[in-house]
Amino acid sequence: MRRRLRVLMAALCALPLALAAAPSAHAADPTTMTSGFYVDPNSTAKQWVAANPGDGRAPAISAAIANTPMARWFGAWSGTIGTATGSYVGAADYADKLPVLVAYNIYNRDYCGGHSAGGASSPSAYANWIAQFAGGIASRPAVVILEPDSLADYGCMSQAQIDEREAMLTGALAQFSRQAPNTWVYMDAGNPGWASAATMARRLHEGGLRQAHGFSLNVSNYFTTAENTAFGNAVNAELSARYGYTKPFVVDTSRNGNGSNGQWCNPAGRRIGTPTRTGGGAEMLLWIKTPGESDGNCGVGTGSTAGQFLPEVAYKMIYGY
Fold first, then answer.
1. Which residue in 256, 231, 236, 238 sits closest to 247, CA to CA?
2. Which domains does the chain have, with CATH numbers?
3. Which three-class secondary structure string do you get for 233-289?
4. Which is the catalytic residue, given 149, 188, 252, 295?
5. 2 falls in which pLDDT band (50, 70, 90)?
6. In the predicted model, is pLDDT for residue 23 greater than 60?
7. Strand ranges of the sheet holding 277-278, from the earlier edge strand across to the other edge
8. Annotated catalytic residue 93
9. DSSP character at residue 45
């Protein structure tokens, strides 16, 4: 009842603003509809701590990582996607908390990188999947990070493939606008070391950014919050100059406590960053990648698969060594 009263008041107070806002704006702010961010009760860090209570690393991993609000990633492994997102957002709604979800199933995912290759079997299969994803959330408050790397991963793609990808993203945004009115959707914009601000602004705009709430930076990467804030501001300067609008942005701070050493795939010596909260020069600082989860068979995660929880990596990341 407490949340529902806040929902009604937020919607009523926002109504005059909604009439004057851009078509992509939602009437309600999901951060005002909830009392803080949701801690995923079934994250890989939580699962490892529960399965290894006698491990000497467990108390530190539990305190510093497993009990910090972070995103849950959804893809082909999630089963019936509408049921999966509906169950997750429903549990968060019941707890009066704001969930962060990552949609990670676009056709030809990680086409040029390869470490996280996969995704839907066709553009039409993706359209169906993302429609069900949004439908599962429905009117409950949520934050969605839309397809990490999808706009930065253009290096080996043909123009036809780029056009195809942008159409999938635009279609996804339309589904959220139609079915999930209290969800803030952020299009992923890579990181400061991937593409220039001018290039990313163009790709965001061509991918449908006007329909999104904003864009996300540094997902699964290590650049400092200051570096990402400067890059986000530069992207907005380009958007303003070229297209006449700007957007809020969020930064993944889960693993950026020591900044980047130039490597992206399980580099050594990284550290957890600022826990999830609003502000910090960006609209929100979020933990989108779980610290300790592998980026793939590389670096200090040699022999692992992408998404596998590596307790020793997590433990060292707490202390920065």
1. 236
2. 69-290 (3.20.20.40)
3. HHHHHHHHHHHCCCCCEEEECCCECCCCCCCCCCCCCCECCCCCEECCCCCEEECCC
4. 149
5. very low
6. no
7. 72-74, 100-103, 142-146, 183-188, 214-217, 249-252, 284-286, 277-278
8. no
9. H
